[in-house]
Write a structure and sequence with these properties.
Elements lengths: L3 H18 L4 H20 L1 H7 L6 H12 L5 H12 L5 H22 L3 H16 L2 H8 L5 H12 L5 H12 L6 H15 L3 E7 L5 H15 L3 E7 L7 E5 L2 E4 L2 H13 L1
Parallel strand pairs: 1-2
Antiparallel strand pairs: 1-3, 3-4
Helix pairs in contact: 1-5, 1-6, 2-5, 2-6, 3-6, 4-5, 5-6, 6-11, 7-10, 7-11, 9-10, 10-11
Length: 273
C-alpha cells in the first residue's frame, strides 16, 4: 500500500479489526484471519473481481453488495464485515486492495497470537524456520520453487513444523509460500517477522556472528541498539562461521559490518587496486 489514499482506506479497516478483537476470543480471531486470507487468495486468482471491488467509479454500496454476493456463506459474518470495510474504502489500484486484504488477514492472526500471549513465539518461529530453510539448499529450493504447487509446498512446511510451532506460525508460513505482498518466500518471511515485532512495538535487528552470543552479550547489544534507535530491539541472531569473527548488524536499511570477513575483503581489494 504505497499511496496515501490506500493507506487511509486500510487504517479505517484496521480500526474495525481492533474494535472487533477487543472482546473476541483469540481462537475466533484466528479463524476470522484465516477466512480473510482465503478471500485474499481468491482475489489473487480473480483479477476481474479484484478490479471491480477496487473500482472507485462504482458506488461503495455496489462494491459492498458485490463482495457479499461472492463471499456470503463462504466466510463468516465477522470476516465479511471486515472485508466490507476494506471494499468500501478508496484504492489507488486493484493490487493495493489485494495487499490490504492479505495484510488484514495477517493482522488478525497476529492479534490472535498477541491476545494468547504467543506473538513473541510466532515471531521467533518464523525467523528460525527461515534460517532452517536457507541453511538447507534442497529444502530452500523445494519451498521457493514458484513453479511447484503451493498446496504441496505448504504441506511440506506443515510436516516440518508439526508439533514444533504455533498454529499461527504455520498459517503465516503458508502465506509466505504464496508470496505475501508479491514478495518471494524469504522476503515474505522477513516481512512477517518485522510485522510481528512491530505489533509488539519492537525494532528488529538482524545479527550475524561467527559463534553464538551469550545471553549477556545479546542483552548488551540489544541495549546499545535500543539506545541508538530509541526503541526496544528484537535481536534475530544468525551464526555463520564464514564471517570468521566480529559482528554484522542490520536494522532496516542500516548496516553495520564489523566482521573480520569484511575487513579481509577490503584488504584484498586494496591489494588488488
Amino acid at each position: 500500500m504505497t499511496s496515501s489514499v490506500s493507506r487511509e482506506a486500510y487504517a479505517a479497516a484496521a480500526e474495525n479489526l481492533s474494535a472487533y478483537a477487543a472482546d473476541t476470543p483469540p481462537a475466533t480471531i484466528a479463524t476470522t484471519g484465516d477466512e480473510i486470507l482465503a478471500a485474499a487468495d481468491l482475489l489473487r486468482r480473480e483479477p476481474r473481481l479484484r478490479r471491480a471491488l477496487a473500482d472507485s467509479s462504482r458506488a461503495a454500496d455496489d462494491r459492498a453488495g458485490l463482495l457479499g454476493a461472492v463471499f456470503a456463506g463462504k466466510v463468516g459474518d465477522d470476516a465479511l464485515g471486515l472485508l466490507t470495510a476494506l471494499v468500501r474504502g478508496r484504492w489507488s489500484a486493484p493490487s493495493e486492495l489485494l495487499d490490504a486484504a492479505e495484510r488484514l488477514g495477517v493482522d488478525a492472526l497476529m492479534v490472535s497470537a498477541d491476545r494468547a500471549g504467543k506473538l513473541g513465539d510466532v515471531e521467533d518461529e518464523l525467523f528460525r524456520f527461515g534460517q532452517v530453510a536457507s541453511g538447507n539448499p534442497a529444502l530452500a529450493s523445494a519451498l521457493s520453487d514458484s513453479t511447484a504447487d503451493v498446496a504441496r509446498r505448504a504441506t511440506l512446511a506443515e510436516e516440518l513444523l508439526a508439533g514444533k510451532a504455533d498454529p499461527v506460525t504455520v498459517r503465516l508460513v503458508a502465506l509466505a509460500l504464496r508470496g505475501f505482498g508479491g514478495r518471494g518466500f524469504d522476503s515474505s518471511l522477513g516481512r512477517l517477522v518485522e510485522l510481528a515485532a512491530q505489533r509488539r512495538d519492537l525494532e528488529v535487528a538482524y545479527v550475524t556472528t561467527a559463534v553464538a552470543l551469550t545471553d549477556d552479550e545479546e542483552a548488551r547489544l540489544a541495549a546499545k541498539l535500543g539506545a541508538l534507535y530509541g526503541r526496544q530491539i528484537s535481536l534475530k541472531v544468525d551464526v555463520d562461521p564464514s564471517v570468521i569473527g566480529g559482528v554484522k548488524v542490520r536494522v532496516g536499511a542500516d548496516l553495520y559490518d564489523g566482521t573480520i570477513a569484511r575487513r579481509l575483503g577490503e584488504a584484498r581489494q586494496a591489494l588488488v587496486g
